[in-house]
Design goal:
This protein is mostly helical. The chain has one domain: MetI-like (MetI-like fold). The two termini are 12 Å apart. Helix content is 77%, strand content 0%. Helix 6 packs across helix 9, helix 7 crosses helix 9 and helix 14 runs antiparallel to helix 15.
Length: 316
Amino acid sequence: MMLQMTLRRIWVGVATMFVVSVIVFIMTSILPGDVAQIVLGQSATPETLAALRAELGLDMPAYLRYLEWLGDMLTGDLGTSKAGGAAISDLIGGRFGNTMVLAGLVAGISIPISILLGLWAAMHPGSWLDRTVTFGTLATISVPEFFVATLMVLILAVNLQWLPSTALLRDEMTFFELLGGLAMPIITLVIVVSAQMIRMTRAGILNVMNSPYIEMAILKGIPRGRIILRHALFNAIGPIVNVIALNLAYLVSGVVIVETIFSYPGLAKLMIDGVQTRDLPLVQACAMIFCGAYVILILIADIGSIVSNPRLRHPK
């Protein structure tokens, strides 16, 4: 049963990737202007524009361009940048590594903090701690990340002058130098992604605490902390893992505002640069990487839910 459910989810992921590839190709193709116009400038003649478009393959029918692009993607060939002529895999390689470094550091800090605060709030429902955590997470969710980033710059970089206002990333940095150089984007992203994980952890635990077997354990006099850690947590792990997966996917693909504010050379900023130059193969490759990150992380979350919850492995 578990193998069947896993294969079914893999098939859904593959179908999702195909649908997204069609949507990405259509949406990027209808962007106004093209790379030929940007490369040659406003003074280009129609003849030179037509020649460059033919050289870049932009004069081919849309469905042929899609099939050629999809075939290259399936073989691992991301193509060549239309704007600079460099291999897209080379352009993405370093930026993807930078994004994964930032995402890994943020995940390593935010996930333990979120689970601990969520458990702590669930152990003391209605207390001042619970109300403080609830108010803080609601306030954080209600404001956009650019506001949090700007506030952090104003407080930590401008007023207190504790941290640099931009991200500092160099080769051969030690771990602590890396933490110091990326402190501002790390703090901003930890604040942004932790709020939802804290709320989901608290809500999931409190929802399970209303179950009959938990009430029976309470009547037996088992301490609340032991009930939560040994019984409630594992039954609430499904939604918690899913929200963690969504936030990890956001760290890979949705941090363009944070990368822009702190001048961080990540993959999301590379995609925005591709949009500005109408470098469609670069934009399409980045979009498919982001989609793949979502699909893989959600698949891992689904498998984790199936493993942790016997009711999902043996549905009625």
